[in-house]
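Internal tracking record. Fields below are filled automatically when a chain is submitted to the structure queue. Please do not edit lines marked as system-generated. If the sequence contains nonstandard residues, flag them in the REMARKS field before resubmitting.
Queue: standard
Priority: normal
Entity type: single polypeptide chain
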Amino acid sequence: MAWRRQRARAEELRALELELATIQIETLRAELLTARTEADDTRAVLAQRDGELSTLVERVAATCERLEARADADRAERQALAEALTRIAETLAVRQVAPGPASEVGARTVIGGSVHPAEATALRTVEPEMPEPAAEEPVIVLPDERLSRQGAAPLGAGDECSVRFRFDNRWIDGFEICETMRQDGHVRYRLRRRLDGWVLPELFEAADVRRFDHAVADVLGFTD
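SYSTEM-GENERATED OUTPUT FOLLOWS
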């Protein structure tokens, strides 16, 4: 009878061990399944985050390219505006010094307001007076010695000078040398307007600048 009880107890222990092993296997299987699910979820989240980061980097790169192109366009526009303003300032400076054209006889200008039709008709019917023919100007012959000295001495700071107007090839006075630029044997001048001390931004070639001779101007009647 004793060996039967031992055998029954051994079978119970074996069944208990089998049940424990089954429970452990099921627990491990559940843990593995949970870990696998979490790993898949983590992988999906990382993939989504990688996609978002890639899209963000592409947008940042495109924005940088647009900003760079806009900066280049603004820089080119500012340079073009600066050049245009320089040309306008040069033209205005030369025109202020240059004598203006004589006004036509009988010409009228209306600034603001209005003109009555009858007055406008009267203005159109009035014939301008014909100017009398001007007498021939006397020919002034300058001594060769003074003409040879004209422009012989180099120009320096503060020297009065005349500048060649590039549009109609006239010489205009009223300027003085502000600065002399020498580079590789090439001389250019920066000029100052004597009327108000304004410095012209453009550099002038030596061929376009000559010394202003008061004696010659007095002979020609250019000074008061």
